[in-house]
Amino acid sequence: MTETTVESRPTAPATIEGPAERTRRLRVGGLMLVFAVIGLLLAFVTNGGKATFQLVSGDLEGSLLKVPAQGTAIFLAVLGLAAAVAYLLRRVPMRYAGWLGAILGICFIGAFLCWAAAGKVFPLANQFQGTLNFATPLILGALAGVLCERAGVINIAIEGQFLVGAFTAAIVASTTGSAVAALAAAAITGVLMAALLAVFSIKYLVNQVVLGVVLVVFASGVTGFLFDQFIQEDTANLNTPDVLAAVKIPLLGDIPFIGPILFNQTALVYLTYIAVAVVTFMLFQTRWGLRVRAVGEHPKAADTVGIKVTRVRYTAVLWAGVLAGLGGSFFTVGYAGSFNKDMTAGNGFIALAALIMGRWHPVGAMVAALFFGFATQLQSQLQIIQTPIPGELLLMAPYLATVIAVAGLVGRVRAPKADGEPYVKG
Amino acid sequence: MSGSRLPGSPSDREAARMHLELAGLTRSFGSLVANDHIDLVIEPGEIHCLLGENGAGKSTLMNMLYGLLQPDSGEILIDGEKVSISSPSDAIARGIGMVHQHFMLVPVFTVAENIMLGRETTRGAGVLDRKKAHALVRELSDRYGFDVDPEALVENIPVGVQQRVEIIKALTHDAKVLILDEPTAVLTPAEIDELIEVMRQLKDSGTSIVFITHKLKEVKAIADKITVIRRGKVVGTAEPSATEEELAELMVGRAVDLKVDKAPAEPGEVQLEVRGLTVIDERGHTAVDNVDLEVRAGEILAVAGVQGNGQSELAEALLGLIPIAAGTISLDGRDLSGRSTRQRLEAGIGYVPEDRAHDGFVGSFSVAENLVLDLFRKPPFGSGVSLHTGEIEKNATSRVDEFDIRTQSIDLPVSSLSGGNQQKVVLAREMSRPLKLLVASQPTRGVDVGSIEFLHTRIVHERDQGTAVLIVSTELDEIAALADRVAVMYRGKVVGVVPADTPRDELGLMMAGASQREAEIAATEHPTTLGTI
Amino acid sequence: MSTSTEAPESQPQSQPEPKAPKQGLPGWAVQGLVAASAIVLALVVGAILIVIGDDEVKLASSYFFAAPLDTLSAAVTAVGEAYKALVVGAVGGLNPIAESLTQATPLICGGLAVSLAFRTGLFNIGAQGQLIIGAILAAWVGFAWHLPPVVHLLVAILAGLIGGAIWGGLVGLLKARTGAHEVIVTIMLNYVAIYLLQWLLTTTTFQRPGREDPISPIVDASAQYPQFGGNRLHLGFILALLAAAFVWWLLNRSTIGFELRAVGANPDASRTAGMSVGRAYIIAMVVAGGLAGLAGTQQVLGTDLPLTDGVAASVGFDAITVALLGRGTPIGTVLAGLLFGALNAGGLQMQLQTQTPLTLTTVLQAVIVLFVAAPALVRSVFRFLPKERGAGAVLAKGWNG
Amino acid sequence: ACGSKPAEETPAGGAKKDFKACMVSDSGGFDDKSFNQTSYKGLQDAVKELNISEAKAESKSDNDYPTNMTAMVAQKCNIIVSVGFKLEDATDKAAVANPDIKFTIVDSAPAEPIPNVKPLGFNTAESSFQAGYLAAAMSQSGKVGTYGGIKIPPVTIFMDGFAEGVRHYNTTKSKNVQVLGWDDAKQDGLFTGDFEDKAKGQNTAQNLITQGADIIFPVAGPAGLGGLQAAKASNGKVNAIWVDTDGCESAAEYCSVLITSVQKGMDVAVKDAIASAVENKFDNKQFIGTLENGGTGLAPFHEFDSKVPAELKSELDAIKADIISGKIKLQSKAQPKAS
Ligand SMILES: Nc1ncnc2c1ncn2[C@@H]1O[C@H](COP(=O)(O)OP(=O)(O)OP(=O)(O)O)[C@@H](O)[C@H]1O
Ligand SMILES: Nc1ncnc2c1ncn2[C@@H]1O[C@H](COP(=O)(O)OP(=O)(O)OP(=O)(O)O)[C@@H](O)[C@H]1O
Ligand SMILES: [Mg+2]
Ligand SMILES: [Mg+2]
Fold first, then answer.
1. What is the mean pLDDT of residues B138-159?
2. Structural domain includes residue A382
3. With contact defined as beta carbons under 8 Å apart, do C198 and D151 qualify?
4. Which of A374, A392, A412 is the last residue of a domain?
5. A366 and A263, same structural domain?
6. Residue B234: helix, strand or coil by DSSP?
7. Ligand 4 geometric centre to CA of C389 (Å)
8. CATH classification of B257-348+434-501, choosing from 3.60.10.10, 1.10.1200.10, 3.40.50.300, 3.30.160.100?
9. What is the CATH T-level fold of the domain B10-252, as seen in this structure?
10. Nearest residue to A329 via CA among A388, A401, A268
11. How far apart are the C-alpha atoms of A217 and A185, rounded to whole Å?
12. A123: helix, coil or strand?
């Protein structure tokens, strides 16, 4: 036997940089450099005085972090610049590249905040609190998308699932007074929407992108119609849900700074944390997850080893409906109380963007949702403390930031191979 | 299904023999009868070869046996009992395993994940037990002398190794009947040797094997029984002792000339000149390492090598499909290094890519459209921005005739043609314009003997018209049939350029990295079975 | 010279004429039947909603057991009147028809923008933003520039096309250069476009003189699409049809379209055949954006509407639905656009006459599309429908192109 | 579902007058918890009180205005009420073409007066001024907050008046109560970007609260309800002032946190306009709702009646008198100009 011929691919020293990597490094590095320089420029125009950061939400006297605005900004900007240059010139092993990016990101935001908050108070704790508020439904929606799309079914209907979830949660909470019943009802209607998605895409092979859009229209129409015809007439009984109460987790909730932000939340937020962990675990550590990913990547291969492709897809899409329905309930019982028409206002589409930006990974999707939540909350807070940036521009900022992040940092993403492709036997 | 175990010990297997009979199986696709009352008996422990042209209906038959397709009529009998197999899980449950013609592996999964898929090893509660799976794969891999790393991602391993993964996967399913649909199309001669050894082991332990291949040498080496299918019907059976010519004639229905008529080359000017070509792939590995090559007008240079040693990248770099890190490529004295793929095609390079379905044609486009996929801009097919559909159709009609492309209509999507015919579409297109250089990767992979004969003739004809031809192939047969000179690649380097009549053993050793001199010596001392297959 | 061509046996095997297409109805008739049945089914769903939402029915059902026929007749009346109004509002006379065509006009162009991108393997969720930018530029040229008639209109249309093309082209460019996923970019740019519009409407350049409201002047008469007769129907409708013809020509009879379709169907093979995938993405998005921009011009140059933050209505999103209904083909898109336009016009009449909320029209549209997209489902209800061949999964493609 | 069939009803007030009052909404729809809804209430009141018939057309998008207007004309309406500045063009065109139909338009006015169009404007800056003063006086923290949906004059006019009212409080009382979320000099402030996203509105209000605001003045339609929700969630620490309608009626679930509401008397104005047409007294003079004519004003304090000191109440009355007399001049550019 000539064993020698069965060498696997020859491995040359990995220090050589492939052309694709090089392009990526230059692109990402260039963008990092641009941000570092902007940070530096801001640092130079930061006027004197101290920037004050509020560390406990609502506490305006104690727990304040006061730093010299310009000095800190310059320090951070220089540090960021160093990180950008180190990345661009490959001065650090590339496996630490992520850290450099994180350093730059933190330094840039830090310098930016010093500039914006010079002579003012910036509620730092509230920044994170608001981030979480914006991100929670996005995370749940994006997780729902991850589950569907890992199984090969594109889910653009998240927005529609949000709407029906929000709608039913509000009504059930108002009529029964039970939060558990409301969440359950939201999950159930989320599943019903998911069932439509599943049946039409898996059984009737309808193009899934357009199907999703149609389902959003459908959900908007149905909730709007029912709202017009029934809810409006009896708002007092049908549309006055109680909002979930925050529950402080003992010990964890007492951790300074992060405790109140992360561990004094409603059950729905804790469910969201759990959902991220559970979905990650289910997808990557269990038999079910392996099969879900298999049918999303190569359904025929899964079929040939005896896996029922359509059944696996149905289960994934329906479970995703649970998550999206719960995400929808955030808009009413989870946070904002009563229902109004089209109140999810495009958040489902942002969740979709988050899951793509997060490369179809639950944790990535969560990070992307948090990124978007952070940007939205920052823009709102900056409008209050009044910066030289015009409000109109600030409103666009989260969306522009997402485009920049996607084009500059995320780049080409690869969907599950069979995502959106119906499986037809034979 | 939970947990998994190794295939039973030989004594278990004695009891596990299966007698399989297919009676009158019929299946049509639309108006096409792909299988027409096919009868087939597979005795326990026999290796049964299925032969037939591309599109003869072999895969269709096997897919029915495996539950992927349902027969229109006819029945399947296991140990004399009529059974219905409505899905692959039925087939698996009854002890039928299959290695499919096209890889049924999930590229982003590890080897172990692929192997356990469908019968996962778990720690209870559905949680995967990867350690156990890894151990299992290692054990099987050792038992059959395969060398696979259970933790490697499938997309990162060479196709030859992927094929082994497929085989291990089928083995873990404890098959009593194992169907192998063209498993050798992507294997190197040495790998084929190993596979044949494994098949013998399995047969000895009582497993029956249905073996589909287009390589008559393999059939003769291993078959106990040979059944030939033509146009959906069984046209005869043969003994392994039949000559290759007899088998080919039975398959194709006419005499086939297995040797290409080839006059000695009359090399002219250097057409392609490659100097110091280096390609770094996406993972940062040096795929092509400082390669120098020349191909002259009117000669065929074959690049031989085990899959994954840089030949594919070499071909892609010549076409500008992947960026080069260093070196120059010039055609007819003109430097092409910085040019786009389109400019290179227009400069007179014809290209037949290795993976035709992926890179060679647009499956949903019609035959006619695919025949002008890289010609549509130029007259007579297009001028300015307008497309001349009449000319495109005319061209298609004549190419289909000339290249004997078997299709019901030039308007059908190419995806509905059989593999061999798809390949003819690609070749017909590339040869329908004046070329200075033809680069063809694996031009006859998975193609039946009749079509191979035809394609080879066309390639030699192209050479005789003064085109420089560069063939990348892992088939020593093909190299022997076509090449005027052979360049052997190993780990991205050209380890030697040798004459076409270099003995196979020597080529094989060079493909494993030996220099020309070492190969010469070693080949004479330890001849391998390579020579016989 | 090849031996195989000489051998008689190697002729292509029994080649009966592809017989299936010859039997029964032609393909378009089958599709039409299925679409009609789908509409009927959707109307049934709508009828159920009308009945449960109708006040008279609610009242009658409160004493259902006393006088069940009342409930029934109330239901029949409610549905009958609503649908009568729907039909009358959509096609009951010259003016309703003109109104339906007017409503259809931007939907057709928007639908084409989505279809064209689809055929190139791109999901253009950004028709809304492209339309807004097109409308901004067209309106600005229309009211701020003062040019001779005809020229003014042409320049304004051109401005709209360019606006949309830039906004779409940006998506193509980012996708080609950085790989940024077009779905994310288009969603985000939709928001950017609307905020941009909101901001512009607070500037003196765009604000109507003498007003503080975020509303622009109406464009000069010289920049308006000529209208036909006394209704709102205008030349933009003809342009929409021409645009459909152009897209058909582009896709089927031009070298560029060949390239776009090839890239859409198999980018790898297209690259290997010397096409530039990035270029195709950019071209497709520029043209798609231009088409959406054309829809934008129809909003501000055609129907007496000034530029406001609601100028795009939901045309950009409805366009996606229209594109599905039209199966990604220009002719189908035109027909789907007409249907949606008719439903919009009829829906307005329905709410007017019978107080049926407009949300019902929304539901009807969604349900019609669902049924049309799933012929198998319609067929399982209406068993008599003949089978369609080779259709259905035309657009069924995934993220990866 | 069971029960007996009610006897045939006869219309309470006998046969209806042969007069039809009609209304076209803008794209917000009649249930926008804002001006469409209030205006529609005016129509309903008129129908009830005057015993006339009605027709209404909701617009889903800007595309629908001309169509709905034409449809109303075709319905032989005697008077057509259009709601919002976006309907101006469609209204004017219909009015010119149909001189014998009366038109009235809420929150807008034709550039040149048209004989059969009566514009209805509301100087809500005046009542918002009172609200600002009230808020400044009621604030414990010395900070009050406001936010809008989209930065357009019908929204910013409230925010302007509010800010001016707070400033007035500061000057008269030598205090330094801060307004968060709106700088009327720079005309820049806090907006959610739309009128639908209630959760976003709530978060926005929460951001104001974090900055110390204890009275919130949301001017954002349904997204503004989020601000009320934020106040409600603060458990008594934060209160709010609603706009357009009396919040204790239109959003009763939040009454417990509403100090008052800045009413924009569109219902009354619409009803009056219809009545004038019924009685053949219709004119095209612009109506501007002010504190003086009661077209705008503060709603009752409801649950806060006991919490608002009597002294403050009388100060508010004094302010009202000063505004009416012209002693206090408002700056807001968004105030409707008398034509
Ligand atoms: N799903 C299908 N739909 C339509 N036609 C099909 C389908 N599958 C197979 N065919 C046709 O049936 C015939 C037999 O195909 P089959 O794959 O069985 O051939 P084969 O003998 O395996 O050929 P090859 O050697 O190329 O693999 C071909 O003409 C093929 O085009
Ligand atoms: N939808 C289809 N319509 C018509 N023929 C089809 C269709 N799908 C597949 N086929 C044909 O069915 C046959 C079976 O497909 P399969 O992928 O197994 O093998 P193949 O194309 O023959 O393989 P190879 O090219 O490796 O020889 C092929 O000939 C293919 O062209
Ligand atoms: Mg086959
Ligand atoms: Mg084959």
1. 86
2. no
3. yes
4. A374
5. yes
6. strand
7. 27
8. 3.40.50.300
9. Rossmann fold (3.40.50)
10. A268
11. 21
12. strand
ipTM of the complex: 0.88
Beta strands in B216-372 (DSSP E): 225-230, 233-238, 270-280, 286-296, 300-304, 326-331, 334-335, 349-352
Q: Would A276 be classed as within a structural domain? A: yes
D204 to A327, D147, D226: CA distances (angstroms): 20, 8, 8
Among chain A residues, CA nearest to B110: A290
Q: What is the number of the ligand closest to the CA of B412?
A: 2
Question: What are the pLDDT digits (tens) for B18-31?
Answer: 899 999 999 998 77
Nearest CA in chain A to D230: A336
User: What distance in Å separates the CA atoms of residue B118 and residue B121, rounded to the nearest whole number?
Assistant: 9
Q: What is the pLDDT along chain A (426 residues), one digit of tens a residue?
A: 333 333 344 444 445 677 777 888 888 889 899 999 999 999 988 886 888 888 877 666 667 888 888 889 999 999 999 999 998 888 877 778 788 888 999 999 999 999 988 888 898 889 999 999 999 999 999 999 999 999 999 999 999 999 999 999 999 999 999 999 999 999 999 999 999 999 999 998 888 887 898 899 999 999 998 998 888 888 888 988 988 988 888 888 888 888 888 898 899 999 999 999 999 999 999 999 999 999 999 999 999 999 999 999 999 999 999 999 999 999 999 998 889 888 998 999 999 999 999 999 999 999 999 999 999 999 999 998 888 888 888 999 999 999 998 888 877 888 898 888 888 876
Q: Do B365 and C261 touch (CB under 8 A)?
A: yes
Residue of chain D whose alpha carbon sits nearest to that of C62: D1
Q: Are A237 and A298 found together in one domain?
A: yes
Q: D66, C202: Cβ pair inside 8 Å?
A: no
Cα-to-centroid distance, A42 and ligand 4 (Å) = 64
**Any idea where the domains of chain B sit in the sequence?**
10-252, 257-348+434-501, 363-433
Reported as half-sphere exposure (CB side, CA atoms, 13 A), residue D205 has a value of 32
D56 contact residues in C (CB cutoff 8 A): 355
| Token pair in block for residue C375 | 């012929």
Q: Which chains touch D (3 or more CB pairs under 8 A)?
A: A, C
Locate B194 and state its tokens: 């190993």
Co-location of A345 and A278 in the same domain: yes
Query: pLDDT by residue (tens digit) across A390-419?
Result: 888 899 999 999 999 888 887 788 889 888
Residue range(s) defining the domain that contains residue A211:
132-374
Whether the CB of C29 is below 8 Å from some CB of chain B: the reply is no
Q: Are residues A198 and A105 in the same domain?
A: no
Question: Does this chain's domain B10-252 share its CATH topology with B257-348+434-501?
Answer: yes
In a domain, A205, yes or no: yes
> In this structure, what token pair is assigned to residue C194?
């609307």
Residue with tokens 């933009």: C236
pLDDT at position D9 = 47
User: What is the number of structural domains in chain A?
Assistant: 2
